[in-house]
Amino acid sequence: MKRAGAILLLAFGMNLAYADPSRLSTPSDAKWKQECGSCHDAYPPRLLSADNWRRLMSSLDKHFGANAELDARDNKKILDFLERNAGSGERYSSSTLRISDTPWFIHDHRVINKKEWTNPEVRSRSNCSACHGRVILGD
Ligand code: HEC
Ligand code: HEC
């Protein structure tokens, strides 16, 4: 997986070392990983603010066009984990609740042009592992 990410970044003419996010160590939680990693990458909690996580977890029935509703117990357990490990400051906050719309994300990805975002192997900004491999997810 790590290799595939490296190859893709090289195809963009970028230096992988430059984009190596391995210092992003990610705390884990089995329930979170299972529920929030089933449709897409399990996004590390520190990449979004606690307030954004609270809003996201309270609207899972209308989750970016999908229904990701959980029972109340699982919801609370996962929210506790996300809040405990959330990022702090404006940099980690976005009105759309998308990590890919936060100031830190936009800043750290400013070298990427439109064509690269829509590369068929990437498809979406939300598809972190297409470029970063599993490293970004703390695996
Ligand atoms: C039923 C499928 C499904 C489940 C389960 C699910 N999601 Fe999502 N999620 C989506 C879809 C679809 C998108 C939009 C993806 C896109 O735009 O490419 C999304 C997007 C997101 C985004 C925004 C990504 C970005 O662009 O920055 C976050 C954050 C997120 N989900 C968090 C979670 C969390 C936390 C959980 C667990 C409680 C979860 N998701 C469970 C389907 C799901
Ligand atoms: C199109 C490929 C691509 C996608 C998709 C992508 N990234 Fe990145 N990311 C990069 C590149 C390239 C850099 C390095 C940019 C630079 O250093 O200027 C980067 C930088 C980063 C950094 C900073 C790295 C560091 O060492 O501090 C983080 C964190 C990060 N990305 C997380 C994510 C997350 C989380 C997602 C999904 C929500 C994501 N990225 C989606 C290509 C991508």
From TrEMBL:
Keywords linked to the UniProt accession: Signal
Coiled coil: none
Pfam families documented for this protein: DHC (PF09626)
SUPFAM superfamilies: Multiheme cytochromes
Secretion signal span: 1-19
UniProt keyword Signal present: yes
Name under which the protein is recorded: Diheme cytochrome c
